[in-house]
Design a protein that fits this description.
globular, alpha/beta, 6-stranded parallel β-sheet, Rossmann fold, about 40% helix, single chain
């Protein structure tokens, strides 16, 4: 069966789709799994051995998207997050079985509509996605390996050689992005970095996205003389994931890079907004739960200050344990 899985939004959202793609492929290896993704996620999707073909949604008109889908000769589709455009495109492409959550006006274009009250946060986003696979195969196993993403050592070896890395890496990613709703200030991240620098048994890295040049320069000025490596990611998402898979700890807000790190096997300290929709209960990663440390940042200043002190204590305790 040729199965289309649609998750054509941001990096973190696409990461929550990976278990569904995996279980659909492993339910029957003869299934041909086609992923419809945003341009940002093309290389990551192509690197997954449980995805057979990738369709990139460049945001063109409905007929253009429908033609791409029709050319893939799809038998069934599982749309993890829908909008009217992708719903109509699948209808026009005449996919026989079209599965999606029963939400929004777009649901009228699907013929298997599954009631999911995601706003109730009764499970995590990736778990809601997995449930949709059962609408196609009721007996499907929803188990998947952790870490789900695996990479070789070549990229990390080159990184270590270029930056003089000789110890276990603890990385801090201060950037905001995606749909994250809470974060510390750059000054607060620098405070955490300074504390990490006091542990001689680790190398400390601050990472920045390719569009975060200003943040990079601000961090460089704030740190001054420092042994922390400032690294700007200039390659693909896959290149960055290969580094994350070898880092020992990744400290960041709840954004795509967090999901990428955890899915690649890295331990994480992650900051979430203290609201149900943006919480860890909704957006925990597909990685090993024992390696995920979640912190909810309150909206009120006093609660925020107390939480920052808790983060410092727990980070100090974790670093003192070594890696």
């Amino acid at each position: 069966m040729n199965i289309l899985v649609v998750r054509n939004d941001k990096l973190g959202d696409f990461m929550t789709a990976l278990p569904t793609l995996y279980v659909l492929k492993h339910h029957n290896p003869s299934n041909r799994i086609v992923a419809l993704v945003a341009p940002l996620n093309r290389k990551l999707a192509e690197s997954c051995d449980f995805i057979d073909e990738v369709i990139v949604d460049n945001g063109g008109d409905i007929l253009e998207l429908a033609l791409k889908i029709k050319e893939a000769k799809i038998d069934a589709s599982v749309t993890l997050f829908s909008n009217t455009r992708v719903a109509i495109a699948q209808f026009v492409a005449r996919i026989r079985i079209r599965i999606a959550p029963a939400t929004k006006i777009a649901q009228i274009f699907y013929n298997r509509r599954i009631k999911q009250r995601r706003s109730r946060v009764e499970m995590a986003e990736f778990e809601y996605n997995l449930q949709l696979a059962r609408a196609l195969f009721p007996d499907i196993s929803l188990d998947f390996p952790k870490p789900l993403l695996r990479f070789g050592d070549e990229a990390y070896a080159a990184f270590c050689a270029e930056y003089g890395i000789t110890k276990s890496v603890v990385a801090f990613h201060p950037g905001f992005g995606g749909s994250s709703d809470a974060n510390w200030t750059l000054g607060e991240y620098v405070e955490l970095v300074r504390m990490a620098e006091s542990f001689e048994g680790i190398d400390v890295v601050m990472t920045f996205g390719p569009d975060e040049e200003n943040l990079y320069n601000e961090a460089k000025e704030l740190l001054g003389e420092s042994r922390t490596v400032l690294y700007r990611s200039v390659g693909s998402v896959v290149d960055f994931a290969a580094l994350l898979s070898r880092f020992k700890l990744f400290v960041s807000t709840s954004t795509g890079t967090y999901h990428l790190a955890s899915a690649s096997g890295c331990e994480t300290f992650t900051f979430f907004a203290d609201t149900p929709f943006a919480s860890a209960a909704r957006w925990k990663s597909i990685g090993e739960e024992s390696k995920q440390h979640h912190f909810m940042i309150p909206l009120d200043p006093s609660g925020r200050a107390e939480m920052f002190e808790k983060v410092k204590r727990e980070l100090k305790n974790r670093l003192s344990q070594g890696f």
